[in-house]
Design goal:
alpha+beta; 6 helices; NAD(P)H_nitroreductase; binds flavin mononucleotide; single chain; about 190 residues; flavoprotein
Length: about 190
């Protein structure tokens, strides 16, 4: 019989992103577990270089409204993208706005801090998956990132790195997706 750890690994290897996502949202305790998983990310010098803001329920529509009403959004570029912003910010039941928090550090360059923030997001994706939900990491191309940064009060050292959407896949049947074998991107090196 396979150990629980093997089953967990098997489950992680079967993870897929899903879009669109709909209800149910993770229960409050499940959402806390998903957010807590970020804290397990590798983190040089313990900088914890990430900051997330979780948006759910009616607050998603309110966030969209504030984004679209922002003075910097009063232009044709944003008008054209309005439908896309609506889709990105109000489709999934849980929308986590992701930021990397970059500080100047003598040993930890910016790229390591960005990688740590990405690892934190990956941990949340895996946690959501293991709890039976799906996630989807989506981009926030400018000017959306700047608008979210401004409207949500992110700090000057914080850089928006996308949205983590969490919920249930809208379509029931999900087929497995073919993944590359590890030999395509890793080799055993011998001297
Ligand atoms: C930083 C980041 C941003 C992404 N942004 C988008 C996006 O805006 N739209 C999109 O279709 N996929 C985006 N993706 C890819 C999806 O999140 C997802 O990984 C992809 O659909 C493959 O699915 P999989 O995770 O099951 O392999 C992004 C991935 C990353 C890491």
């Amino acid at each position: 019989m396979r150990s629980t750890d093997e089953q967990t690994l098997e489950a992680i290897l079967a993870r897929r992103s899903a879009w669109p996502l709909s209800e149910p949202a993770p229960a409050p305790a499940e959402l806390e577990s998903i957010l807590q998983a970020a804290a397990v990310a590798p983190d040089h010098a313990g900088l914890r270089p990430w900051h997330f803001k979780v948006v759910q329920g009616d607050d998603r529509q309110a966030l969209l409204h504030r984004v679209l009403q922002h003075p910097d959004a009063q232009n044709e570029q944003v008008q054209v993208l309005q439908g896309k912003y609506t889709m990105k910010l109000t489709t999934a039941p849980v929308v986590i706005v992701l930021a990397a928090r970059i500080t100047v550090h003598p040993k930890v360059p910016e790229f390591e801090q960005l990688l740590a923030a990405g690892a934190a997001v990956m941990n949340m994706l895996n946690a959501a998956h293991l709890l039976g939900y799906s996630g989807f990491w989506s981009s926030t191309p400018e000017p959306l990132a700047a608008l979210l940064h401004n409207v949500m009060g992110f700090g000057s050292q914080e850089r928006i790195i996308g949205l983590l959407n969490v919920g249930m896949p809208a379509s029931a049947a999900r087929t497995a997706v073919a993944r590359p074998s590890w030999q395509e991107y890793a080799q055993l090196w011998h001297a």
